[in-house]
Amino acid sequence: MFLKQIEERLLSELDPHVKLVLETGRYIVEAGGKRLRPLFTVLSCGMCGGKPEDALPLGVGLEYIHVASLLHDDVVDGASKRRGRDSANLVFGDEVAVLTGDYMYAKALHLFSTYGTQLMIKIVSQAVMDMAQAQVLELTKVGEIISEEEYFQIIDGKTAVLFGSCFAVGGLKGGCSNWEKLFEIGLRIGRAFQLIDDLLDYIGDPSKTGKPVGNDLKEGKSTYPLLCVLEKMDKEFVENILSKPEPTDEEIERLRKEVLNLGGGEETKNRAKREIQEAKNLLKTFPENEFKREILKLVDFVVERNL
Ligand code: FPP
Ligand code: MG
């Protein structure tokens, strides 16, 4: 439902007149993705009683923000792969990747100024401020064991607030004024999404995720699967590997396997399920209709994907 319209609009709104910006923008958009953000935006609008199509350019704007953040993130991380293919920074260079990210972000704001409201712009710009800050926070914690509180601060900022914005913006467009409640629903779903993303770093099939397992550990990032079993582990052993600039593959494998043996994978999946349950509870107060049913299907997909 709506996927075809989203794909078409994602390409048709992309209209830079400098050829290289167009080429880079198309490259990252055409690399695909699940389009969860625009889907949640149009479905939230429909669920709240609006015409879902009215929220389409706003959903597209939110996907552009996501794409812009990935372009920048891959430069920051020095990544060479994205969505199973060479990353844009590898193909076009860091400078072009960053500047195309700037273009996509500004394009999103432009769409919001045409089809949105001041309140929507406030919600979305706050989300982007949170994203940038969470990324910096994550950077400063590389090589360290972090607290669960810090972990949730990071994932709420880097992922969940944008999902929150999708629900809030869609709902506002659909005529619902209780956008805070919708934001909370998206926040919970986004949290679950990132928890599963972090779990896939431990157990995912690289041919489906497009990334090798153990990548986060290799980069010195401590995520929920590790943090939730940390009490049962030798902290010094963990810290030693995390802080190494170039840990060996054997060290990463040892750490990864130990986390899984101690139940870190199951516990992460359970935590994601609890977040989803809370989102579903909050959704109960919204009207029952085909759009809500579609949201619920997508929400289950968030937890089950690639597992
Ligand atoms: C991927 O995380 C990165 C994000 C989800 C957010 C990145 C946000 C910014 C760079 C700031 C906002 C900037 C703009 C222009 C909107 P990850 O590295 O954990 O995931 P990955 O494995 O997919 O790279
Ligand atoms: Mg990254």
Give the topology:
Elements: H1 3-12, H2 19-30, H3 36-47, H4 56-77, E1 81-82, E2 85-86, H5 88-92, H6 94-115, H7 118-140, H8 148-173, H9 179-203, H10 206-209, H11 215-218, H12 224-227, H13 235-243, H14 249-261, H15 264-283, H16 290-304
Helix pairs in contact: 1-4, 2-6, 3-4, 3-8, 3-16, 4-6, 4-7, 4-8, 7-8, 8-9, 9-15, 15-16
This protein binds farnesyl diphosphate and magnesium ion.
Using only C-alpha atoms, the radius of gyration works out to 19 Å
Supply the number of helical segments.
16
Bound molecules: farnesyl diphosphate, magnesium ion
Can you summarize the main beta sheet?
2 strands, antiparallel
Low-confidence stretches: none
Q: What is the arithmetic mean of pLDDT?
A: 95
What sort of overall outline do the alpha carbons produce when their principal axes are compared? Answer: globular
CATH topology title: Farnesyl Diphosphate Synthase
**CATH C-level class:** Mainly Alpha
How would you name the CATH homologous superfamily? Farnesyl Diphosphate Synthase
User: How helix-rich are the residues, as a percent range?
Assistant: over 70%
Distance between the termini: 24 Å
CATH architecture: Orthogonal Bundle
Main sheet: which strands, in order across? Answer: 1-2
Can you tell me the number of structural domains? Answer: 1
Strand composition percent: under 5%
